[in-house]
Task: inverse folding
């Protein structure tokens, strides 16, 4: 049943690729480090243009040096080629720079359910720099009585925290 639906959908896209159908297609690509959210929700996929038969995909890297970006590029090319779209240009755009504010609220909720404390608004994070003690809430019990264990969690994009209430460690998606 799933296969049937998928092949039908692929056929529609192959016959008439549009900006919308391509965005929909590429939205199926998950973030390599956080499989519960996709690159569109993450704010990495910025734009798709079809110019003279070439598909131009604009992406903005998240954390600089994030090794996931190369993987995302490869997955975009592969997904488009699978649809018969072979003329693909991937444009890296660094301005405006990606911030965690670009992550959709829906995706932040998915992060929390996945056990990762979603980023606070970057304005709040600047409060930390100014000495205000804003702690990420525990994704398990919502307590804000949390402590940072390490600047780096399972990946460089995350910091490792522990909840002082339920004693569970958790990843916090760092703000930039
Ligand atoms: Zn907790």
Result:
């Amino acid at each position: 049943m799933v296969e049937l639906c998928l092949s039908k959908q692929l056929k529609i896209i192959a016959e008439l690729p549009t900006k919308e159908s391509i965005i929909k297609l590429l939205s199926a690509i998950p973030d390599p480090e956080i499989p519960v959210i996709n690159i569109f929700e993450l704010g990495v996929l910025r734009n798709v243009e079809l110019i003279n038969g070439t598909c131009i995909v604009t992406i903005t890297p998240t954390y600089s040096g994030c090794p996931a970006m190369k993987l995302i590029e490869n997955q975009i090319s592969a997904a488009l080629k699978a649809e018969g779209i072979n003329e693909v240009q991937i444009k890296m755009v660094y301005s405006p720079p990606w911030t965690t504010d670009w992550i959709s609220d829906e995706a932040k909720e998915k992060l929390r359910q996945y056990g990762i404390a979603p980023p606070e608004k970057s304005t709040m994070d600047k409060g930390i720099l100014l000495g205000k003690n804003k702690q990420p809430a525990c994704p398990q019990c919502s307590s804000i009585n949390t402590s940072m264990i390490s600047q780096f969690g399972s990946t460089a994009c995350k910091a490792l925290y522990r909840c002082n209430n339920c004693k569970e460690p958790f990843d916090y998606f760092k703000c930039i």
About this structure: The helical segments are 2-15, 19-26, 39-42, 68-82, 105-114, 122-129. The chain has two domains: 15-98, 103-173.
